[in-house]
Structure formats: structure tokens, C-alpha cells
Amino acid sequence: MAIAIIGMFDEREDILRLIKEKIEEKGQTPLLIDISIGTGGIKTSLHLDVTNEEIASQAGATIEEVRSMVQKERDKAVSIMGSGLLKKVKELYEKGTIEGLVVVAGMTGTFISLETLRSLPFGFPKVLVSSVASMPAYATKFSEYFGVNDVFVMNTVVDTVGMNHLIRMLATNAASAICGMVEAKSLKSKPEKKMLALTEFGFCEKGAYYVRELLKEKFECVSFHAVGLGDKAAVNLAKQGTFSAFLDMVPAGFSEYLFGGNRAAGPDRLRSLETLKIPYILTPCGFDMISCGPYERKDKNDPLWVTRKLSERKLFIQDAMRVQARTSKEEMEEIGYKVAEELNRYKYKEMVKFLIPKKGFSSISVEGGPLYDPESDEAFIKSLKKHIDPGIKVYEVETHINTMEFAQAMVKALFDALGDL
């Protein structure tokens, strides 16, 4: 098996050559993949295992066609090479030809490689050596890829063209990183126990702890911070078949998407697992709030604060950056209806269980808490029960979310669902 080295050899041959040599020094086999689009002046003397002609052909184009697009249609050139690289790397991975991958790139090469890096499964060694990965202007774009996958990103600080002492250090570190990952065979063994996904955040921390404690003898619980990206990562891994069950203690990435909150996880947040035959256990934690910080947005005519009239609501101000606004009765009714609509799509409805802690959806909406509003909570419950498919069981538990009693109810629902398998 080999380690793939990917880059534009007409621009960055020097560092790519040195990474190749360092990988060989460590007893590993390099496999060179060229994604050049004609922007560089180097005619490489290295033997390329996969040429840029082959990458272009994987996407149904010729390299001449790609080069002709560079001046006026570079986005199309990048799209073609990105599609071709994705197909080729997928082929090499599925055949067992490669056991690790390192990309060295500037702006264009980074964009070409992003989809390929995201496509590789969790645990497969993948390193991106990029001079642009830390650019603030592209932070949102890059987070779609790095936020949901275990890509090891090296910010190069300097551009990776030519050769100098700093580039030699970068090449050595990159080769050492990818070889170290590949050589760590013991970490690739199968887990001793079945793994479960558990979404959580600070407002249900005790409840999540109790769930983990109750399950630790039989399962490994993998927790995800439900702030948007964590949700997406959990769903992404579940779709890869990583988990035997999904405990969605904080599905609020969906309601945050509906109302424009900071923790939004997109329109597919609840429907992404609809065809999987694994237990899906949910609670309404997080539906009782909208993440709307920083607090300074209140005085800056911010669209979310203005349209939702957040300054007129109950607020929980953790600090200058983190602010939670109470969801209204009307919004909770909408969440109930929309959640039911999403869950009704599920193929294996007997696997879906919804548990409601009647005395507080989170630590800040319990009696005496800053977002306490039982009328709004009840509006959600009535709406959900009205619209949910009867094949999906809804349990109302007379406690709040951070109790052992509620954790026990969640675990019981899990085992009830597992009994259906």
C-alpha cells in the first residue's frame, strides 16, 4: 500500500519531491498524483503515478480543455479537476491501494482537493498542507469540510513554492505527520464495544453524563458538541455506519436553522438518518432557546435581533459572546410541527423515540431559570403530538433533562428500540 502525495507539480515540485523522499526514508511507498492546471512553469522530472491528464479524463475532459479555461473560467477548471480527483482517489481507496494521503496546495489546489478530503472516512490518515486554510474570508467555506471530518491541516505560513529552510521544515513535518498516522496501526482496530452517538451541550451536561454512565458497560458513547458543526459531524459519521444508535439529546441545530440562530445545522439536520435502521432517540433540549450572541448585535440593527424582536424577550447572557433568547410560544408550535414533519419521513419509525422532560427542556428553562416558560414548552408538546406519526412513540417524563430519572428513561427507550432489531 502507498501514501498518496497530491499537488500541482508544475508549481510545487520542490516541496512535493522532498515529501516523497522523506516518506521513502521512513520505509513507506509514495504515490504521486498531479492536479496541475497549467498555471506553473515547471516541467516535472518526477515519475507521476497519476497524471493531470488522467485526473481530467476521470471527469470527462482533456487537460487541454482544462488549461483553456484557466484565464476566464477557472471555476470550471477547478470543478473538473476536483471531480476527477475525487473519482480517482475513491478508486484507489476502494482497491486498497492507498493507506494515507497528503495534499500540498495553494488556493486553487486546496479548492480542488476539498471534496476528496471530505469524502474519505473518519480515521483514514489525511493531511492538508495549505497556505490559505486559515484565511478569515474563507473560514465559512472551509468549515463545511474541516468541521465535519478529521482532516489534519497544516497552515504553512509561507507559500510552498521554491525551496528554502522553512519549506524544508514544512516538508519534514508533513511527511512525519502522514507517516506517523499510517504507522499507528493499533488505532485502526475495531472498537471493543458498539458505539453510540450522543449530541450534547452545556445546558444538558449533567443529563448527558448520566446517560454515558448508564451505558458505559455495554457501549462506547461518542459525544458531539451540538453547536452546528458537531451535529453535522455526528450525522456524517452515522451515515458511514459508525454507530449502532443515535442519541440526539440536542437536536436544536434544526430549530436554530429555522430561526437563523448561531448553532444552525442546516435543513437536513433531522432527516439525514431517515433510511438508517438504527435507534434514534431524541429530546427537545435546545428548542427552548435561540443562540444570538454576541450581545453587541442587539444595538447594531442586527436582522435576527430586529425581526425576532429578541431584545424584548427573556435572555440568558453567559458572557459578551454567548447569548440565549427564549423561543416564543408561536415559535415552539412551529418547531413541534416541523420536527414532526421531518421525523414522519423516517422509514423505520419504530426505531424513533421522542422523550420530553416536562419540567425543563434545559438547565436554563427549569422553574426559576432565566428562560423558564412552561406555556411555550407546552405549546411545543401539543404541536409535536398533534402532527407526529402514531408509529413514533412520544414519552413525557415528569422531571427535567438533567436528572438521573430522565437519563434512565432515555436508556430504556434505547433498549426498547434495540429490541426491535
Could you say what the CATH architecture of the largest domain is?
A: 3-Layer(aba) Sandwich
CATH topology of the largest domain: Rossmann fold
Count of the domains: 2
Class of secondary structure makeup: alpha/beta
Query: How far apart are the termini?
Result: 37 Å
As a whole number of angstroms, the C-alpha radius of gyration is 25 Å
Strand content: 15-25%
Q: How would you describe the shape?
A: elongated
Instruction: Return the CATH class of the largest domain.
Output: Alpha Beta
Mean pLDDT, all residues: 95
List low-pLDDT spans: none
Fraction of residues in H or I helices: 40-55%
Major sheet strand order: 7-6-8-9-13-14
The biggest beta sheet, please? 6 strands, parallel
The CATH homologous superfamily of the largest domain is named Uncharacterised protein family UPF0261, NC domain
Count of beta strands: 14
Description of the structure:
The chain is 40% helix and 17% strand. It is of the alpha/beta class and 421 residues long. The protein folds into two domains: 185 residues, Rossmann fold, CATH 3.40.50.12020; 225 residues, Uncharacterised protein family UPF0261, NC domain (Rossmann fold, 3-Layer(aba) Sandwich). Strands 7-6-8-9-13-14 form a six-stranded parallel sheet. The longest helix has 21 residues. It is elongated and about 70 Å long. The relative contact order is 0.09. The mean pLDDT is 95.
